[in-house]
Amino acid sequence: xxxxxxGIVQGVGFRPFVFxxxxxxxxxxxxxxxxxxxxxxxxxIVSHIAEFRARVVSEAPPLASIQNVISESIPIANxxxxxxxxxxxDGERDVLVSPDIATCADCLxxxxxxxxxxxxxxxxxxxxxxxxxxxxxxVPYDRSLTTMAEFPLCADCAREYHDPSNRxxxxxxxxxxxxxxxxxxxxxxxxxxxxDPIRKAAELLSSGKVVAVKGLGxxxxxxxxxxxxxxxxxxxxxxxxxKPFAVMAPNLESARALATIDALxxxxxxxxxxxxxxxxxxxxxxxxxSVAPSNRFIGVMLPYTPLHHLLCESVKAPIVFTSGxxxxxxxxxxxxxxxxxxxxxxxxxxxxxxxIHIRTDxxxxxxxxxxxxxxxxxxxxxxxxxxxxLKARRPILACGAELKNTFCVAKRQHAFxxxxxxxxxxFETLRSFREGIDHFRxxxxxxxxxxxxDLHPEYLxxxxxxxLKGVEFVGVQHHHAHIAACLxxxxxxxxxIGVAFDGLGFGLDGTIWGGEFLIAxxxxxxxxxxxxxxxxxxxxxxIKQPWRMAGSYLRKAYSESENVPAHLEVAERNAHQWPQxxxxxxxxxxxxxxxxxxxxxxxxxxxLSVRDAINYEGQAAIELEQLAAVGEDDAYEVAVPAAIPFExxxxxxxxxxxxxxxxxxxxxxxxxxxxxxxxLMIVNAxxxxxxxxxxxxxxxxxxxxxxxxxLERTVRLLEQAGFRVLTHRQVPTNDAGISFGQVxxxxxxxxxxxCQGGGLVQWEPF
Length: 766
Ligand SMILES: [Zn+2]
Ligand SMILES: [Zn+2]
Hints:
By secondary structure, the chain is an alpha/beta fold.
């Protein structure tokens, strides 16, 4: 029998597994890696072959991800042994690259075994674990095409590499203290310290120093999480005011002292992908206040490289492990860059001489509605493909959005969503965007025929797209991309009702959209409802200063003659500027209109005195969610739209908020009722759309749905009303999911164009 297995089956111990399985069943034959996966041939007792065929799938190594198995009978060749054959490297490449994988239990045992030759060796790995995506320069996946190429194997390692019964058989990054990379500890002037760098670094952390640590996909900045002075120092040097820091806990037990952890959260924390998991913080934990100021949640991860394990073993306490950068810059991943940018922040550097080929940030997930949901999909996940619900007829590149950018390349049913790139306004980020696209094109052998982009003419991702030559363009409206991403993420093609609530996205009518009700399939959409547009006084200043949106909504909620209610704190606090923004809105100068739901949350946050200005994106809304009283079920009166198309009056909700405040309700109760009212408003609106069009499925997407309180409430109410609800599963609901949505739209339009015999549904020049 010949068996083809496609998917992630290289670099994950698949060949030794198959070798062992064939031997145990007394089967002869061969296995070979090729450009799509592996090809196996076996001969022997028929029932054994059937068993082999079943167990190849059911017992595959933990890191293998099998996507397709095809078997066929072939003539008997009378072979007597089972062999592993040399790889083929010709033909069209279609092999998948594995993400980076956390240190496995076997390697961990060796690292802490004084009798093992890899005792305390920080680069120990095997076919079941270790660096992959971050060290791969090209394919096929082979040591010579990784950053381990400069470390020739010693005789002992070579023996393991060539022994099919060994756990390190063809483990491309394998190494040992004799032949592999090594760590060093430097002070900020580059002077080497002590001869036990890891123990010394641990001592420094324990004594309150800030240490930069070179990891898998970039540098981290580390400080003892219980030491308020150390964490505060790190914050001030990093110029990061309030945004929470993630913490690395030495083990699960220590993580339990920081946060409550249920079974699913435990599974996420200990998975080989090792993301940062957002958990409910315990009020009695000994975390320094500055780790996550005014935040109910704490991002926790467990060690995922031998270096982390060794460091944590010496420190014996949770360590702040935050990205190695200043403020919003991209994380440092080359040694020169780290020395330059991080020496004003870190007192010491724990570094090593294995190069990081591509910058990859930590991933962030949370558990919601009984499953793991990505907030940032990067290390440990990328570049594993997300499957499209339809095959892309031609290769596609999607350039994504501006903030939290990812790009995506697609080939047939595979969508390769990139690692987290970041906010493109920064030059360095733009460079990693360009280099990342080149890398993915080479890695996955994709030469795009179609390029998809956001309609916002000022997005740098859009400008990059439109500079490309010899391709067809597909412009995708921002909120259509969100809904398409949610549909495709669930394997659906629509049509469906789509609710896209986010900060801002380029609209088709000259206003800025962000509180949108669509009817959409992957190829097209219709805007059937939205929040009534209000001015953003001062334009982008209104994003940074939510009190301006409070001013705008209050002006809308109360007619000129009524005036804004007296003694409203937000107006009193900002009295000196209040007349200016009124004038701006009246004269319509620098006051673009927006239907953004994010801005409505900002307005209410400012009215409830959560904050008037923000230090990071979404801060006001995040803090409003955290303020909300648990268990509050009331909502304000919310109108049911009579027919489509409709406008929903956010200002009416603002009136409800103000009336409630003035009636003496506490701010936490008002915050909860506001969330409940938004959920109710969504359900009422979807009900009207269902009546008009007979659609009973709702896809929820956009950054506003990172708000767990809103998401869970909305889903519950929709399901109670008989709707089928789709939410994100594999790509984030925020703008990091836009590139995946763009790919889905481009693939669907390309298919539709072929079926209808016309050209691509086109985009008009701006
Ligand atoms: Zn291992
Ligand atoms: Zn060696």
